[in-house]
Design brief:
The chain is mainly alpha-helical. It folds into two domains: about 10-75, Winged helix-like DNA-binding domain superfamily/Winged helix DNA-binding domain (Arc Repressor Mutant, subunit A), CATH 1.10.10; about 80-215, Up-down Bundle (Four Helix Bundle (Hemerythrin (Met), subunit A)), CATH 1.20.120. It contains ten helices and two strands. The chain has helices at about 10-25, 35-45, 45-60, 80-100, 105-120, 130-145, 150-165, 165-170, 175-190, 195-215, and strands spanning about 65, 70-75. The protein has a two-stranded antiparallel sheet. Strand 1 (about 65) and strand 2 form a beta hairpin. It is elongated. The protein starts with 10 loop residues before the first helix and ends with a helix. The model has no long low-confidence stretch (mean pLDDT about 90). InterPro entries: GntR_C, TF_FadR/GntR_C, Tscrpt_reg_HTH_GntR, WH-like_DNA-bd_sf, WH_DNA-bd_sf. GO terms for molecular function: DNA binding; DNA-binding transcription factor activity. It comes from Tepidimonas taiwanensis. Keywords: DNA-binding, Transcription, Transcription regulation. This is HTH-type transcriptional repressor RspR.
């Protein structure tokens, strides 16, 4: 088997990113056992950097370590999802409030362009669901950036990794993409009006509806 070429970062970080993408793409689905020997042989590496990579993913919540059984891709329960969505709603609503005060007109115009791209990705004729996922996340992360709190953003990034274990759950519900698009528009409109209370409420509604669709 030909080894997968790795780049120049610390080896365990490269392996962690490779496994992370396999988890997000469902090549390694929830509940799947991480076969250390097979993966190490495939990548042409020793098991030491692989085990360090697994520890990184375990810290992120993507992998669960089981005594005497090895590592498995985390299976997210409905309670896990509720807890993640509740925290994301709290943190991202706070970021939206802060963005109302701190974002420049130019930055909000950039957010408007992201929303336009999101609308294009949602088009059933010419759009792409994967592209919608990508721009959807970019929109949320941009609002976080405009809130100017790197610690809040770091916590959200970790929570979003766990949410991606159920990535297709919410948006696969019939009509949910259109609803999500309207909710993003409500967030954007509130930000443009500099209405902090409305922006925070729009974010909370967005996550409440997303959770309802996901469980």
């Amino acid at each position: 088997m030909t080894a997968v070429p790795l780049l120049s970062r610390a080896l365990y970080e490269e392996v962690a990113e490779l496994l992370r993408q396999r988890i997000f793409s469902r090549e390694l689905p929830p509940g799947a056992w991480i076969d250390e020997l097979k993966i190490a042989q495939e990548l042409g590496i020793s098991r030491t950097p692989l085990r360090e990579a697994i520890k990184v993913l375990a810290a992120e919540g993507l992998v669960t370590m089981k005594v005497r059984r090895g590592a498995y891709v985390t299976e997210v329960s409905q309670q896990d999802l509720r807890e993640v969505y509740e925290l994301l709603a709290l943190l991202e609503a706070d970021a939206a409030e802060a963005a109302c005060w701190r974002a420049t007109d130019e930055e909000l115009a950039e957010l408007e362009r992201l929303h336009t791209a999101l609308e294009a990705a949602a088009d059933p004729q010419t759009g792409s669901r994967e592209r919608f996922f990508e721009i959807n996340e970019a929109f949320h992360l941009r609002v976080l950036d405009l809130g100017h709190n790197r610690w809040r953003k770091q916590v959200v990034l970790d929570l979003r990794k766990v949410m991606k274990l159920n990535r297709h759950g919410s948006l696969s519900k019939q009509g949910r993409i259109a609803e999500s698009l309207a909710e993003h528009r409500a967030i954007l409109d509130a930000l443009k009006r500099r209405d902090a209370a409305a922006a925070a409420q729009a974010v909370r509604v967005h996550f409440a509806n997303g959770l309802q669709a996901a469980v």
